[in-house]
Amino acid sequence: MDKDTAIKIVDLYKNFGSQNVLNGINLEIKHGEITVIIGKSGGGKSVLMKHLISLLKPDMGEIWIDGVDITKLKERELNEVRKKFGMLFQEAALFDSMNVIDNVAFPLREHTKLPEKEIIRLAEEKLKNVGLSGFGYKMPSELSGGMKKRVGLARALINDPDIILFDEPTSALDPIISLTILDLIKETQERFKKTYVIISHDILGMFRIAHKVAMLYNGKIIEYGTPENVKKSENEEVKEFLKATGIPGFVGGVL
Amino acid sequence: MINLFSLDRIYHPATSVLRQLGGMALMFFSSIFYAFRRPWKLNYIFKQMEFIGVKSLGVVLITGTFTGMVLAIQTYYGFRKFGAEGLVGATVALSMTRELGPVLTSLMVTGRAGSAIAAELGTMRVTEQIDALIVMALNPIKYLVTPRVIASFFMLPVLTIISDFVGIVGGWLVGVKLLGINEGAFINKMIKYVDLEDIYDGLIKSACFGIILSVVACYKGFYTAGGAEGVGRSTTESVVIASVSILVADYILTSLMF
Amino acid sequence: MKINRLSPELKVGIVVLIGFIILFYMSFKISKFGILSEKGYELQVYLENANGIDPKSPVLIAGVEIGRVKKVKLDNFKALVTLIIKEGVQIPSDSTIAIKTQGVLGDKYLEIIPGNDKKILAKGEMIKNVKAAPDFDEMFSEVSTAAKKFGNTIGEFQGLLGDKEKTSIKKSIENIQTITVEFKDIIKENKQSINSMITNADDTLKGLKKIVNDVEAGKGSLGMLVKDDRLYMDAKETMGALKSISKDIEEGKGLLGKLVKDDSLYNDAKDTVKNLKDLTDGIKKGDGTLGKLAKDESLYIETEKAMKKLQKGADGLSEMTPISILGTIFSFIF
After folding, report:
1. End-to-end alpha-carbon separation of chain A, Å?
2. Phi, psi of A204 (to 5 degrees)
3. Nearest partner of B203 among B138, B158, B242, B140, judged by Cα
4. Tens digits of per-residue pLDDT, B106-147?
5. Phi, psi (5° rounding) for residue C247?
6. How far off is chain A from B132, nearest CA to CA, in Å?
7. Same domain flag for C229 and C114
8. Does residue B1 lie within any of the structural domains?
9. Is C155 left (phi over 0), alpha (psi -120 to 50) or beta?
10. Is the same domain home to C177 and C263?
11. Which of B7, B128, B138 has the CB atom closest to A93's CB atom?
12. Chains that touch A (3 or more CB pairs under 8 A)
């Protein structure tokens, strides 16, 4: 395993009943890069992401993170690995029972012994990073979808994790809010140089920020490389998928 | 430890009665197991005690009082036929402490708090808040289930003894003040025929019911699948299953005790 | 953060405290004795039948609870009952214990009837005197036996009153008529003393009436009456005495003197007398004479009747079983 490889997935299989969702995934995700996994809705992207954080166990295969195969770990050891992760959920998954600042501070409160003042200071700083300073004492139900995602991002970043996972960060948002979220992702990544893994079907948006793109099709990674390489892919499925976006300049587009 | 919060359990929900029963038992045991593991989450437990116990107080007071009152009326007209009005107090007290106090309290708490637990956990599940906890390396059983089970276990007996008491007071009001039963007979027969065991057994029963209702509600909520509709289904199922289980358990416990 | 709100801990604490207060209050109310139970001392008693006696059944003296049953176990086919008696309650060693029933629910309790002995029962000692409880099943079977025997006795009586007896009744009546004539003279002479005698008799009658009423009401358990040999002996004796008296009367011997002087005999006679009305149709002839003399017609009539009946019944009575005595009493009454 290379030194600059953050996550290495080897021959990952997962079935739900008779349905083969993951059909032999092989992928290496580099340190300090934004890797986007694109694919159809319901094509197994979410399932793949849930394997990365061990919410699901594979039927077969290995997932190496920092030299450890997490599929073999017990729950207790897994929690040590999970502390290196942050995750932004599709609908932010803020705790409804807590206000914004408590949500952001929650991982610190549970995993560190920092004094309360320091925790609040760090949480407010992260809120400021995502442009929401002053919203600390609102409840999640009072926030819009885009704001929730920003709070979710703040919470994902609070522990200074090495790897941050994004589940459809731009879904269900209008184009302008989508752009601000994408900018925020790019900006924070450039600042902290962490490993970002994003799954999305929003090809256009993702090509703006991705360092690497992986195409998931029929439970397999059929294309992997820089956005430029993927755009020029000769793979039929990739072509078709890109064509469907109908954006000029893409393979099979109007041009 | 069996991995209770693997998402596989969501994608392959337990449908058979036996598997659900086993799942509930596992959830109960692991919630107890995590209760003894550091860090203690006392503030979580107190929050749930407030929600399950304190906030159910009103409904428990009302049902308890009226149950005692109606018991007094019913038994009065029955006992008057053979001149045993003096036994109304004893009957009300025995029925309340042994049976109606624990069972009605548990059913009311199931309806009020059990449904809320199932809905809350169900919502947390479908909005991935439970996944968020796991990703933060926090144990959702310890954070969500354990406080609720412990809070129910401790608060149900408290609510039950209050219900017993207001039920007897209600019976006294109707029997002595309204129907004019001899107060001395009312009180003395009550004291004579009610044993400490009647009260304590009732409280033990209610603690068991507390575990049943919280475990069922947590289980149903925790393994909710299918969005908002799934949350509604879980809530309904948790109330129905918990209520039926309480009545069945009541029979078993009663036959073991008395 | 929110200062004006009670913290959950405080609210929970208040509710739990209320619960505990209620629990302690109710427990204390119920277990007035339970708390003291360690301070009591134990006594034991063997019962033939401890049916209905459970641990915690109360033990009473004069209706006041002084202890509870601790345990009941079988020992040599008898029920060995252990009692816990409150400290400070002293029970004479010759006290009697009885199972009694109370309330509509038929709750059983133990009543101790204190004896007079100076010696006090100490911890662990045995109460030896047990008053047999009237077992209802047993009692009912005895009553039905008794009822059967009544029937027989009444049959015997009917047999007794054949033609021969009627004749002898007639004869007796004639005798009495003769006697009454003599009475007339005597009484004329002794009017004063007869009057006082009648007053005495009246008092006695009242007492008897009460006894009869009591028997009628079933007081003083039937079983005992049936079983009590002494009563039978008394009755037999009385009957014997009556027999000789009536013989004497028949013969005109002894006359009223004895009757007047022997109160208890008179009582017995009176008791019987009072209930013989139906046998006396023919006696009415004597009506007036003695009655007028005695200024108490009914008394006179009844005396008359008694004499006759006794005369006839006396022989048979002496051979009758105790139950027949009972039967006789009943047939007199009804």
Report:
1. 41
2. -60, -50
3. B158
4. 999 999 999 999 999 999 999 999 999 999 988 899 999 999
5. -60, -45
6. 6
7. no
8. no
9. alpha
10. yes
11. B128
12. B
Query: Does B255 reach chain A within 8 Å, measured CB to CB?
Result: no
- Which residues of chain C neighbour B57 with C-beta distances below 8 Å? 15
Q: Give the ipTM.
A: 0.88
Residue C116 lies in a domain: yes
Three-state secondary-structure class, residue A34: strand
Nearest residue of chain C to residue B80 (CA atoms): C104
Structural domain includes residue B213: yes
Asked, for residue C26, whether it belongs to a domain, the answer is no
Give the confidence band of A195 by pLDDT, cuts at 50, 70, 90: very high
Q: Which of C112, C133, C154 is the last residue of a domain?
A: C133
Nearest to B156 by CA among C210, C15, A210, A173: C15
CB contact under 8 A, B159 and C19: yes
Give A75-109 pLDDT, tens digit per residue. Answer: 888 888 888 899 999 888 999 989 999 999 999 98
Q: Which of B3, B127, B135 sits opposite A91 (nearest CB)?
A: B127
Instruction: Name the strand (E) or helix (H) holding C26.
Output: helix C8-30
Cα–Cα distance measured from residue B50 to residue A120, given in angstroms and rounded to the nearest whole number: 26
Q: Is B24 within 8 Å of B216 (Cβ atoms)?
A: yes
Domain total of chain C: 2
Whether C238 is covered by a domain: the verdict is yes
A interface with B, Cβ–Cβ below 8 Å = 16-17, 50, 53, 55-57, 75, 78-80, 82-83, 85-87, 89-91, 93-96, 106-107, 110-111, 165
B54, B84, B196 ranked by CB distance to C12: nearest? B54
Assigned domain for C51 exists: yes
The answer to whether B46 contacts C23, with C-beta atoms less than 8 Å apart, is no
Residue A116 has pLDDT above 50, yes or no: yes
Give the whole-number percent of chain C exceeding pLDDT 90. 3
Q: Which residue has the tokens 């005992």?
A: C224
The fold for domain A1-84+197-255 equals: Rossmann fold (3.40.50)
Average pLDDT, chain A: 86
Domain containing C68 equals 33-133
Torsion of CA B18, B23, B25, B29, to 10 degrees: 160
